[in-house]
## 1
Amino acid sequence: MVVAVVAELQLSLLSALLNPEDDSQRLTVTLEKESGQLLVSYPMVDVLIGQTLHPALESLKGGAGAQDMPGRLQAEPSVTAVHPTLYAGLLLSVGMPLRSASAQWQSQRNIVLGGTAVLLFLILEAVGPRGAVFSRMAAARAEVALANTRLQDANQQLAGSFSGGSNTGGYGGSGSGDWQ
C-alpha cells in the first residue's frame, strides 16, 4: 500500500510555530485518527506513535474554538483546539499548557495589581491628613453649636430677668419697672 500526502503550507509560518530550537515545549501538535490513534506529533514522542490517546478527538471536534482539557501528549491541563483536515478521519489538534498560555497574562496582572496598590496608597496618603482636618472641623462645629446653645440660654435668662417678675429685684435698681 502506497500513501501519498500533498499539502501546501507556508514554510516560514510552520518553521516559526514548530521551531526545534524552542525548548520550552509549549506548543503541542498532533495528527490523529478520529479514533484517537496518534500518527505524528510535535514534539516528537516516539513511544506514543500508533498508540490511542484518550479522549478520542472525534468526540471533541464538534466544539467551537479551544477547549480546556488534559494535554494530548502529557497530562497537564492545556488549551486545545481540534480541527478536521481535508482527509476524512484525520484530525489535527494544537494545544498549549495552561501555565504557558497564561504566563504573560499573569505577569501583566501582577503589574496592574502593583499599580493599583500604589494608586490606592497614594489616595490614602492624600486623604489621611484631610481626614484629620475634617475631624477637627467637625469638632469645631460641635463646639460652635454648644456655644450658640449656651448663648441662647444666657440671652433667655437675661431677657427673663429684665422683663420679669418683681419690681424690686433685678437689674433696674429703682424698682419701678421702667427703664429710663
## 2
Amino acid sequence: MRQTPFIDKNFNIWPFPIRIGINDISHLKYQFKKTRVMHRRKYGKKTLLDLDYFKNRIGNPVPLSRIFLGKKYSGKDPLIRKASLSFSIKCLFIDFVIGFGIPQIREFIIRPDIFFLLKKLKYVIQRIFLSFRLLLKVKFYVFYTVNNFEKNKSAILRFLEEENAL
C-alpha cells in the first residue's frame, strides 16, 4: 500500500488526510461499511476505505523534519544516504510540483487542454515556492529499498533510532 501524506503550510505532515486506498481488499479481516471503487486506466481497480473505522487509531500531524526519497535497489540490504541537492530538487520537481508519482494527478487532473492547464498554473507556482522552502527546512535522504519489506522496515527504524539518539 502506497499513500501520499498531506503537508500543510507550516510543514506539519498529516497521515492519511483522505481515504486509504488498497488494491486488493479480499485479504482484510474487517468488512468496511463505506468503500468507493476507483477504476484507474493504468493501475486497475483501487478500493478507497472509509476513515471512520480508523478514527482515533491514526496519529496526529507531526512536524516534518526529513523526507526519504525512495529508490529501488538491487543490493542485498537497504541503504539510507543523505540526498544530494540536485537529486532532491529533481525529485521535488517531478513528484511534488508536477505530481508525476501520484497516479491520480496524471489520470484525473492533468488534461491536454491548454486553458485547463493555465488555470492550474497558480498551483504549480505555489508548489515551486513550497519546494524551495522544503529544501531549506527539511533533511533529504535517499532510501535505497530492496525487495524485502522486513529488511526495509528494519533499516528505516534503525536509522530513525540512531538519528534520534544523537
